[in-house]
Amino acid sequence: MYAIVYHGPGAKSWEQVAKPTVQADTDAIVRVDTVTICGTDLHILKGDVAAVTDGRILGHEAVGTVEQVGPGVKNVHVGDRVLVSCITACGACRYCREGQYGQCIGGGGWILGHKIDGTQAEYVRVPFADTSTFAVPEGVTDEEVLMLADIGPTGYEVGVLNGRVSPGDVVAVVGAGPVGLSAIMGAKLFSPAHVVAIDLADARLEAAKQFGADITVNPSREDPVEIVRGLTEGLGADVAIEAVGVASTFEQCAALIRPGGTVANVGVHGGPATLHLEDLWIKNVTITTGLVDTYSTPTLLRLLTAHHIDLARFVTHRFALGDFMEAYDTFANAAETRALKVVLSR
After folding, report:
1. What mean pLDDT comes out for the span 20-31?
2. Which pTM value belongs to this model?
3. In terms of Cα–Cα distance, which of 113, 98, 114, 120 is closest to 34?
């Protein structure tokens, strides 16, 4: 089969590799029908994720058809159409029993495209198939469901739920890429007073309006702190969601937050950021971090099926499965291409 293989920072190729086989009783082999590229994959290619080593197949999101299952798989069957989650869950360890699947210590967590071969391939081996895949509901497309492999639950759980968004809140989302847009969409479910999207790219600010932001700010032209304080009688945002993964955007969130507010960090950081405790310690500010757990995926699937969330709008570019190198170029140059999510299909 063919797959996207990582060969160190800045190096990847679409090359022929061995097709995966069942290695454990709980494995499934899934034929990848629809797959995408994540911002985390770009972080890996920058060298930000040291655990990813030369020869690893990238990717942690897919929708596909089950081709083979191990003898211990009970609820997933050959021929099933499934969502392959970015998080693998053993289902039995302490963290899985608490619903913190991203922290699984039983062999799961974020392993696809990280510690084991991932989904940017013609086939993928999925460990713990019963607890790491989701049946695709009738009446929805592969593309829609694919958005719930990662960005949907990430923005919702790590941004909106960790940030404790409540009715009437002013929510500032720093970074209007796919995860930031997911956070905007999720925040709107809780009836905030205002959602403020902050980004340096005007194209992404335009997208933020489509996803529910009622105020957009480009920091190259306007001061986000001044605008947010103008909405809040000088206090600052109730919730600030960091959705980029660089020091400046985290520090921006800390400057935006009101006393008693919550900064929810979602972005993948490859370097340190300054934490101004000399300013924050007295303000009763909560700072949360997190890797997505995907405990919300069943809820989001129900909302998708009921047409309460629109995930199709994330997809801006489509490619054939063999056009991965072109798709990566398009996604990595989003400022020029206006790409949100690229989708590759058989």
Report:
1. 98
2. 0.94
3. 120
Per-residue b/e over 303-340, b at no fewer than 16 CB within 10 Å?
bbeeeebebebbbbbebebeebeebbebbbebeeebbb
240: phi then psi, degrees, rounded to nearest 5: -120, 125
Query: Of 145, 155, 167, which is closest to residue 312 (Cα–Cα)?
Result: 145
Regarding whether 264 and 306 lie in a shared domain, the answer is: no
C-alpha 133/C-alpha 91 separation (Å) is 12
Q: Residue 307 has which token pair?
A: 């047409």
258 and 333 both lie in a single domain? no
Beta bridge partners of residue 240, listed in sequence order: 172, 263
How far apart, in whole angstroms, are the C-alpha atoms of residue 30 and residue 296?
23
Q: Which residues contact 174 (CB under 8 A, 6 or more apart)?
A: 180, 198, 199, 224, 240, 241, 242, 243, 244, 249, 252, 253, 256
Two tokens, residue 93:
């360890």
Identify the band that residue 48 occupies on the pLDDT scale cut at 50, 70 and 90: confident
Question: 281: burial class by Cβ within 10 Å (0-12, 13-18, 19+)?
Answer: exposed
Rounded average pLDDT over 279-296? 97
At 324, which helix (H) or strand (E)? Answer: helix 324-332
For the record, the structure tokens of 297 come out as 């995926």
Per-residue buried b or exposed e for 30-62, using 16+ beta carbons within 10 Å of the residue's own CB? bebbbbbbbbbbbbbbeebbeebeeebbbbbbb
Domain C-terminal end among 288, 314, 332: 288
- If one counts the domains in the chain, the total is 2
CATH number of the domain at 311, please.
3.90.180.10
Query: Are residues 330 and 208 part of one domain?
Result: no
CB atoms closer than 10 angstroms to residue 210? 12
Kindly report, residue by residue over 191-213, the tens digit of the pLDDT: 999 999 999 999 999 999 999 99
Residues 25 and 91 in one domain: yes
